[in-house]
Amino acid sequence: MAADLAKCQGAGHPQHVAPVRADAVQAHGVPGDVLQRPVVRRGVGASQAGVGDDRRIRSRHRTIGEYFTAERPLLGSLPDEPFETGRLFTLRVDRYSQICVRTNRYSVPVRLIGRTVRAMLHASELVVHDGREEVARHERLIAKGGCRLDLDHYLEALVRKPGALPGATALDQARSAGRFTPLQ
Description:
Blueprint: H1 2-10, H2 17-28, H3 32-35, H4 38-47, H5 64-71, E1 87-92, E2 98-101, E3 104-107, E4 116-121, E5 125-130, E6 133-139, E7 147-148, H6 155-160, H7 169-176
Parallel strand pairs: 3-7
Antiparallel strand pairs: 1-4, 2-3, 4-5, 5-6
Helix pairs in contact: 1-2
């Protein structure tokens, strides 16, 4: 634990990071970096739903559970219609049939080169629309400067220029994902 705290303070992180992590370990019995992973955090919250109800926030007189019991009648019901949680971008397709969303590049069909499309960025995926038609759906890239290319988006261009296929980046990504084999 002490080594982790020293790492946090010496690696360009603010000084307040270490105590927060230590509190997470004491309160939940789980290392703080585990709580920061989205999938695990959801699991911990679901399995320990009532664990923190008897805690107090600093010098407040009532516990978290007492506050929730008092506020429960004031909470409204959930909406019947789904609520859009993604972030909308309006983007222009470049000459390589790609769009750039938050420093990452994603492919779209070749027929859209030069046109403006709408992209909805969700937590785990990117959905691209041309008008009302969905033209592409990609798994979201988390690291900066990444590139996600779908070989199907380039098939129109490869019919016109078949010599471009052997060195295509989209082909390399399709092979590494197992979607393109030498038999195809």
